[in-house]
Write a structure and sequence with these properties.
By secondary structure, the chain is an alpha/beta fold. Helices cover about 35% and strands about 15% of the residues.
Length: about 230
């Protein structure tokens, strides 16, 4: 049911984003990589998920957290889309097995390695750390990680951002795939994770420059670290 439900939600929801937004999307072709891979994105707001769905060229399986999946409606919606939970409070081998199975079947598995919506000080884009584990999973599955920096999706908290005016600005930048290294040299994926953090920083800088070049800086919501 996951693929059918995902495609149904995409079909119903895409027009809302197409008519309301004028997004800045860089290097989308990098996400067209064939076969299984991990899409690793920073996390700025709950609207990262639908904006990535509207932007990414392939169907994705999202890894969420148990706190979100336990919410009645959201959990039902996500589960039917093929999303599954990762318990961040402990080692969760069952979730890892699900990820490895999806990747082995050629799926794109989207993960937010910050583990939560961070404050500005905690954000990987401003020097914060990511949670360990994504590099090890990529090594185990022998699949690349495609980094993605996404900004401005918090704008959709405002009702006016949904109006069909194509004035809402959000932005995404997809990075070059980061291929697994020799597992014997990097069994825990630390080198992969270091490269991922470096890529996040570079993609963030490139995206900010592009937004400024298009004179959209004043319309890109940069208060995405503020939480309710």
């Amino acid at each position: 049911m996951g693929r059918l439900f995902y495609n149904t939600i995409w079909t119903l929801g895409y027009p809302a984003f197409w008519t309301s937004a004028n997004p800045v999307i860089l290097h989308r072709e990098r996400a067209k990589l064939a076969g299984g891979y991990i899409l690793a994105a920073n996390h700025t707001s709950p609207y990262d998920v639908p904006c990535l769905m509207a932007t990414h060229p392939r169907v994705m399986d999202f890894v969420s957290i148990t706190e979100v999946m336990n919410k009645p409606f959201v959990g039902w919606l996500f589960r039917n889309m093929g999303t599954f939970a990762l318990d961040r409070s402990r080692r969760d081998p069952q979730a890892v097995r699900v990820i490895l199975d999806r990747l082995d079947r050629g799926h794109v598995v989207t993960m937010f390695p910050e583990g939560r919506i961070p404050t500005r000080e905690q954000s990987v884009l401003y020097g914060g750390a990511i949670r360990r584990g994504i590099g090890r999973i990529a090594q185990m599955a022998n699949v690349p990680i495609v980094p993605c920096v996404i900004l401005g999706t918090v704008a959709y908290r405002r009702f006016t951002s949904w109006l069909p005016l194509r004035r809402t600005i959000y932005a995404a930048n997809f990075g070059e795939p980061i291929s697994p290294t020799n597992a014997s040299d990097d069994p825990d994926g630390e080198q992969l994770e270091a490269k991922l953090v470096q890529s996040f920083h570079a993609l963030f800088s490139e995206l900010i420059e592009e937004v400024a070049k298009r004179e959209l800086s004043d319309r890109l919501s940069m208060d995405f670290w503020k939480q309710d």
